[in-house]
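ok so I'm stuck.
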Amino acid sequence: MNNSIGNKASAGNVFWAIYCFPYIMMTLLPSLKYSISYIVAGSFGLFAVLLIFFKRYDLRNRIGIIAILGTVVGILAFILGNAGANDIANTPINYLRFLLPSLLLLNVTGLKRKAQWLVWFFSALILFYVAYTTWRATAENPMIARLLASGSDDSVLTMYRLNNIGGFEICYAIGMTFSAWVALAFDCKKRIIKLIFVFLAIITFVFVISVQYMTLLLLCLLSVFVVLIKRPGNALSKIVFVVIAMVMFFSMSTILRWIAETGVESQIYSKLIHMADFFDGNSSITETTSRALLYKSAFLEFLSSPIWGVAQSRHAAVSHSTILGIACNTGIIGLMVYAFLIKSCYLVTKSILQEYNITLSTYYVTFISFVVLLFLNPIQYSYEISFVVFMFIPLTLILFYGYFEGGNERNESVEN
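replied:
not stuck anymore, here's the structure
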């Protein structure tokens, strides 16, 4: 009987180990993402969620509630004229696909240690391969990453995607790793590993500058400030880090002007200079970015019908904000459902990290950056970002903290 159970568990582990590789490629490689139909990609993700739904009784209620509430949101958006009939089915599928990375993390951490490393190395390889191809493309066209964010089917842009040049989603996903590399560089005790993380932090930051997403750049800088301030230590060290963070903050205009002079495209140059002027107190936020006007317009529209959203909303699709877009589309009802989805992703991931005795301060920085990004950009369908935040970075913390921080008994038992 025990052998039978063991064989089933082993077979299940093999399945999840195999499943992860095509999932990672379909999620992170632009050439596959834009070549595979939505039906195929959605079915592939939904298949895994359904397996976990029937296998894990402790997650069954949460998955079922997300599916039901997602359907309700889809129906509401359809009634208001903000979505088509197909979105009644697509909305819950999209929500479940966003949840999937945290569910996969649960299964990956059940694998043997070598299999966990294999999944991590494969993920890191794909991420940095796309970062490299995108970085090379920016040498030819500094605006290519921003142009690819348009979603246009232009033949030239399609060629770039087929060559795995990343657009908005994957660029932000790669940038979200920056604070984790910095934190691990501080915390790892082995010098060679520390140097590896310093190298990863440097090349990630160079990548962030090259793709010219200013919001991503500022998010990376602010997340590092938080990492420095939240590092464990005595009161004196914390004061030193706070002083360093304050000096860097008040030097932000100088930093932005320096970046602007590194040869960025003229439109980005203008934005960086305006942002530097803002930090100097020489301009208002509305002069610095047109997004502030989009946010304001979307928020005012939301206030006109806050409970269930605005019929035929003019700003839901153009608010440039996940939170404000949902608020206009389906009101407080949609916001509460989406909050439940994000909370579910977070709680599943957090519970796994706690089982491995991982210090959560580093992951808090990543998650807070993700939440801030929800207000600043439309990322509700960015499965690359969900993968990095709820699977790749947590798995990184589990593997590296387990080896170099000590006291991680569960890691040792899993390896055995």
